[in-house]
Amino acid sequence: MGDTLVPPSGVSEAAAQLAKPRPMRRGSVSERFMKCGQRGCRCREDDQARHGPYFSVTRVVEGQTRSRYLTGEQAEVVRRQIEAGHEFRKHVEAYWQACEQWADVRLEAPEAASQEAAQKGGSKKPSARKSRPRSKRS
Ligand SMILES: [Zn+2]
Q1: How many whole angstroms from 31 Cα to the centroid of ligand 1?
Q2: How many angstroms separate the alpha carbon of residue 48 from the centre of ligand 1?
Q3: Residues with CB under 5 A from ligand 1 (ion)
Q4: What is the pLDDT averaged over residues 14-23?
Q5: CA torsion sign, 21 to 91 to 104 to 109?
Q6: How many angstroms is it from 73 CA to the middle of ligand 1?
Q7: Whole-number mean pLDDT of the chain?
Q8: 26-69 pLDDT, tens per residue?
Q9: How far apart are the first and last CA of the chain?
């Protein structure tokens, strides 16, 4: 049947953290104040009079920068989604570390590993014994 390996509690906890789906994204939000093209607008000379803020979310996908404009409200949501993505990355890293520690433990405990192998093989005898005549037993 299935794998009888029971993960250590650290691995199970790390896995549980990964199994909590949330909307999340990669990238960053930027906030800009812009000059307009209108003649006579104060933004031309006065940085304080620039227009905005204008929000956008930017992400690099396969070497290409993709960005999209956002409203102020959307920018807040997107910031939280990006933060959720950062947390997910931490959880992935924690999961890796827990699994690697587990992997090290299995390297250093040959008995545990051989028990595991025995369980997987069930109670079947090694194939060499198959050649023994059965008639003697019955
Ligand atoms: Zn202007």
Answers
A1: 17
A2: 11
A3: 36, 41, 43
A4: 91
A5: negative
A6: 23
A7: 84
A8: 999 999 999 999 999 999 999 999 999 999 999 999 999 999 99
A9: 31
